[in-house]
Amino acid sequence: MLAVLRDELARSGDTIFEVKEVVGERGSGHPVRFIPVSMLAGMRREGLQHLTEARERLAPVRNPAVEDMSALFPRPRLTAAENVVNRLAEQFYRDHGVTEIEPALELREPQPGEAVMRTRYCIRREIGECLREGSRLKGDLFLERGATRWRLDFDCEKCIMEATATADFTGSSSRMRGNEVKCPDLNRKP
């Protein structure tokens, strides 16, 4: 009977609790002869319910912060680099004093000379042609995907690589000069 008691009381069902050990008092002078499993299940459910209620009573009360509508954004103008792409983000910035928001780069074609990406990841370093370590590559470095290409600019002092839209942003690859890093065409079917 003791094994049945342990098995039945060790179940915690779909609660957040885990029963690690079931311990019974021995030598109390009252040996357990028989308890119906349905009664054990009821006792277990009642005990787990009491634990859940106690946990809820003791849980800290969390009050979400109220947005301070008087707080102004530090600048009245956001560039495409701030990446405002949906109406909720736009409304948030307007509520906080921003009066001019450029469309994010994802929503429009970039202008020639406009930076479309700035990152600490450096392709030159990846291919073993870091300018700090003496690169053999001379001239500009480009990323190309289909008819689209970007010139890569490197700020070695800050360890930043920037991809910039070229004047022939939608031009053909036959007009390219310099070194090219080809990107796979992700839309092409194998």
Order of helices and strands: HHEHEEHEEEE
**How many individual domains?**
3
Q: What integer is the average pLDDT?
A: 81
Radius of gyration: 33 Å
**What about the largest sheet?**
5 strands, mixed
What are the low-pLDDT stretches, counting only 5+ consecutive residues below 50?
171-178
**Total strand count, please?**
7
Percent in strands? 15-25%
Structural class: alpha/beta
Which strand order does the major sheet show? 3-6-5-4-7
Number of discrete helical segments: 4
End-to-end distance: 66 Å
How much helical structure, as a percent, in the residues? 10-25%
- Any idea what the shape is? elongated
What does the oligomeric state look like here? single chain
Walkthrough of the structure:
With 190 residues, the chain is an alpha/beta fold. The chain has three domains: 2-57, no CATH class; 68-108, no CATH class; 111-190, no CATH class. The chain contains four helices and seven strands, in the order ααβαββαββββ. The chain has helices at residues 2-10, 37-58, 87-95, 123-126, and strands at residues 77-78, 100-101, 115-119, 141-145, 148-155, 160-165, 179-182. Strands 3-6-5-4-7 form a five-stranded mixed β-sheet, with no helix packed on it. Strands 1-2 form a two-stranded parallel sheet. The protein is elongated and about 95 Å long. The N and C termini lie far apart (66 Å).
SSE map:
Layout: H1 2-10, H2 37-58, E1 77-78, H3 87-95, E2 100-101, E3 115-119, H4 123-126, E4 141-145, E5 148-155, E6 160-165, E7 179-182
Parallel strand pairs: 1-2, 4-7
Antiparallel strand pairs: 3-6, 4-5, 5-6
Helix pairs in contact: 1-2
